[in-house]
Amino acid sequence: MFSPFLQPLVTVLAFSAGTAFSQDAVRPLVSRRVTEYLMPVTAQTHEVARVPGTNFLLLSQMSNSQLVKIELDPATEAPVAYQSFPMGESSQSGLHGVWPSAVQPGMMWLSLQSENKLLLVDPGDELSDSPLIIKTIDVPEPGNGPHSVFEIGNRVWAGLKVASEQTEEYYVFSADIDNPSDTILYPCLHSPVFIQEDPATNFIYVTQDAASAIMRIDTTTGETTQLPIPPSVGNNPVGMITASGPLAGLWFVLAGNSTGGTGSFGRIVSTGELRFFQLKKPNLSNNTALLHLADASTPGNPALWLLSTSLLSPNSPDALIHVKFNEAITDIVGEEYISMPTQNAMVHRVLTMEKTVMVSELNTFSIAQLAYEGAVAGAWKPAGTAEEAVIYDEAS
Ligand SMILES: *[C@@H]1O[C@H](CO)[C@@H](O)[C@H](O)[C@H]1NC(C)=O
Ligand SMILES: *[C@@H]1O[C@H](CO)[C@@H](O)[C@H](O)[C@H]1NC(C)=O
Ligand SMILES: *[C@@H]1O[C@H](CO)[C@@H](O)[C@H](O)[C@H]1NC(C)=O
């Protein structure tokens, strides 16, 4: 029985429900969310990669040289548990690079920057399995400080971030995987970071951050060429990827400096020419400092994920930006901004999964997962409200 006090209210509700003039259908909810997962507390959390064909991510924590193995829920790709393993001789070994091997499927490359070593490890089938070292490659003098590691064809590559103790120069290192005594050191500028091969020409390209230039290596002749970034566009090239399909070629981003970034990024086309793009959404793109990127293309929709970071300047936001291109890849036709929940996180790397996107947070020992439900990246309607009046029409 309703209390007499509630009765009038119940009558009113029943009346309005009965006379509703345009009842909408029940609809499933559409959402976009970023969830942060806390990792072991340490000063610097760096690179993240998936162990191919498994539900494990490997995350490097450089400041204590720990490798965090993260188990994912196979359906949602959400992290569910982790275990952390020390890598190297001590907490000062400087674990940084993490890269999957294709030559030895299931194995992962790691770099120990302070020990001048690359490791090939078997991460193990269970979360609690300690990574097993399969191969150790020593970086010879005068090389110093392998930072990010890559496998290209039958060779493993690393950018040597630290000035040589013998020559005070910087080098790009490569070694034959089957014959690790076959090593090459290419002198380069301060400081090599990402190394990628252009599949169209087989030239190797290397971003050099502080010198603000890209080095091209012809591995057949050993000849190297410097391609400077025009200062009017921005500076500090870091992240670089090889894309296929409509974006075919190499793409790199510019991380800016202590005053902020310019929201600029570029493409290396097969002629070797650098083509630049700049984010243009008013206010949201201000000072974006792009450190890393990933291919976000879906059939018929060429797109990139760009990661803006506060690592170099507190003026720059920590944000993931989805950028859509026109068919000819000459112009940006859509920008969706997703602020990371924790600013000053100094986000470091972005990794696309099958359904979701992961971001490592250097300063806040976290990994963030972006997930859409009932929507896809680049088509999030509220992202268009700044310019598209049509959104208001639909919402009214
Ligand atoms: C930082 O980068 C901007 C944009 O390229 C440039 O104008 C400025 O001179 C740079 N500042 C420093 C301190 O290098
Ligand atoms: C962003 O930059 C534009 C163009 O320089 C400027 O007009 C605007 O005020 C800036 N917005 C913010 C929030 O700083
Ligand atoms: C950008 O920011 C400025 C300063 O806060 C503001 O006046 C302007 O209306 C903003 N522009 C857009 C397109 O939101």
Q: What can you tell me about this protein's structure?
A:
Keywords: Signal. Residues 1-22 form the signal peptide. The protein is mainly β and 396 residues long. The chain has one domain: 7 Propeller (Methylamine Dehydrogenase, Chain H). It has 2 helices and 28 strands. It has a 4-stranded antiparallel beta sheet, with no helix packed on it. The protein has a 4-stranded antiparallel beta sheet with strand order 2-3-4-5, with no helix packed on it. A 4-stranded antiparallel beta sheet has the order 6-7-8-9, with no helix packed on it. The longest helix is centred in the first third of the chain and has 12 residues, at 7-18. The radius of gyration is 24 Å and the shape is globular. The protein binds 2-acetamido-2-deoxy-beta-D-glucopyranose (3 copies).
